[in-house]
Specification:
The protein is an alpha+beta fold and 121 residues long. It is 27% helix and 35% strand. The protein is elongated and about 50 Å long.
C-alpha cells in the first residue's frame, strides 16, 4: 500500500493550517490568505510532502520539505492557496495552468520513492 499526503505550515500563523490544508482551501478564497498574510513580515510557507509505503515486511516513510513564499497578488487558476503561493518565481496555480511541474522531476518525493522501490524489488 502507498499513501501520499502533504501538510502546509505557515510559520507566521504558528503552523496553521497543517494537516487541515484540504479543508481550508475549500473554505478560504485566495483573498482570505492574502488578508491573513498582509501584515506579516515572514511570508514563508513550508509544504511537507510525505509518502508512506507499507507491505508485509514493514513500513517506509519518505518526507520532503518545500519552502515557498506568499505573494499578495493571486495569479493562475487553481485552488485558493495555489494562487498565492510562489515557488521558483511562479505561483503553484501558474505551474498547473501551464502544464508544468513546480519542481524538477528528480527533486520530487516520488523520485526518491521510485529509487528506493526499484532497489527493493
Amino acid at each position: 500500500m502507498i499513501v501520499n499526503d502533504a501538510f502546509w505550515s505557515i510559520p507566521a500563523l504558528n503552523g496553521f493550517p497543517g494537516g487541515y490544508m484540504k479543508d481550508i482551501t475549500e473554505w478560504f478564497e485566495a483573498q482570505d490568505f492574502i488578508n491573513l498574510m498582509r501584515d506579516k513580515k515572514d511570508k514563508s510557507i513550508v509544504i511537507t510532502d510525505c509518502i508512506v509505503y507499507a507491505d508485509e515486511d514493514g513500513m517506509k516513510v519518505f518526507s520532503k520539505e518545500i519552502s515557498c513564499e506568499f505573494t499578495l497578488q493571486p495569479k493562475g487558476n487553481g485552488n485558493s492557496i495555489e494562487k498565492v503561493v510562489v515557488l521558483n518565481g511562479k505561483t503553484l496555480a501558474e505551474y498547473h495552468g501551464e502544464g508544468e511541474l513546480s519542481e524538477k522531476p528528480n527533486e520530487l518525493i516520488y523520485y526518491e520513492f521510485a529509487k528506493w522501490y526499484s532497489h527493493k524489488k
